[in-house]
């Protein structure tokens, strides 16, 4: 167990996670090491292990932080009135800000979970579950006449869809060239555009 007050432990964990976030904005998951993360903090490489056992646990905490931020945005959306014809875009705009979340879930979720302790995984699942509840809260707020099963169907359709948003909206020049050579029909979408289209279809029949 790391030494220090709960506040100190939380602050140092947050510092480590933020260093990881800065690296991940410019480097792929596989290229990032514990040493590189530690170098971006006030801690030594060895000290990082007092707070996280593996690189995967650090990334899982980062993803949990991203889910928390998305949850807060969803709660704010649930609290304000939105015309039905604007709901899908408003929902999509909230997710547009969470590019790092979309990147993490599309590429590295399995590795992060497999390489983490059950304690870290449980903490992550709490944050993930809070996002699910927040999505259901948004639907209840804006489609109050819908049924509980409608919300569950939305969740089981939308959350798997999230895994594909980043790859379909963040195409590299090399990928674009390969698709051109292979004759793959591709239309460029932003995360907001592709999420809006999905949410429009998923909510089209919901009573308001």
TrEMBL record:
Pfam families hit by this protein: TetR_C_34 (PF17929), TetR_N (PF00440)
Residue ranges constituting the HTH tetR-type domain according to the UniProt record: 10-70
GO terms, molecular function: DNA-binding transcription factor activity; transcription cis-regulatory region binding
UniProt DNA-binding residue ranges: 33-52
Keywords in alphabetical order: DNA-binding
PANTHER family in the cross-refs: HTH-TYPE TRANSCRIPTIONAL REGULATOR RUTR, POSSIBLE TRANSCRIPTIONAL REGULATORY PROTEIN
Protein name: TetR family transcriptional regulator
């Amino acid at each position: 167990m790391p030494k220090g007050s709960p506040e100190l432990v939380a602050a140092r964990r947050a510092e480590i996670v933020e260093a990881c976030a800065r690296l991940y904005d410019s480097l792929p998951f596989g290229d990032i090491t514990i040493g590189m993360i530690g170098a971006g903090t006030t801690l030594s490489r060895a000290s990082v292990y007092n707070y996280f056992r593996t690189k995967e646990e650090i990334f899982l905490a980062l993803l949990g932080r991203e889910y928390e931020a998305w949850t807060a945005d969803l709660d704010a959306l649930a609290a304000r009135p939105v015309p039905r014809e604007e709901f899908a875009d408003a929902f999509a705009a909230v997710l547009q800000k969470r590019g790092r979340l979309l990147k993490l879930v599309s590429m590295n979720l399995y590795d992060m979970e497999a390489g983490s302790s059950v304690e870290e995984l449980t903490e992550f699942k709490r944050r993930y579950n809070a996002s699910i509840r927040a999505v259901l809260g948004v639907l209840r707020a804006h489609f109050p006449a819908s049924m509980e099963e409608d919300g569950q169907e939305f969740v089981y359709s939308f959350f798997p869809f999230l895994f594909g948003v980043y790859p379909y909206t963040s195409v590299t020049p090399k990928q674009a060239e390969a698709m051109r050579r292979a004759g793959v029909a591709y239309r460029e979408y932003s995360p907001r555009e592709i999420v809006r289209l999905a949410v429009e279809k998923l909510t089209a029949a919901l009573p308001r």
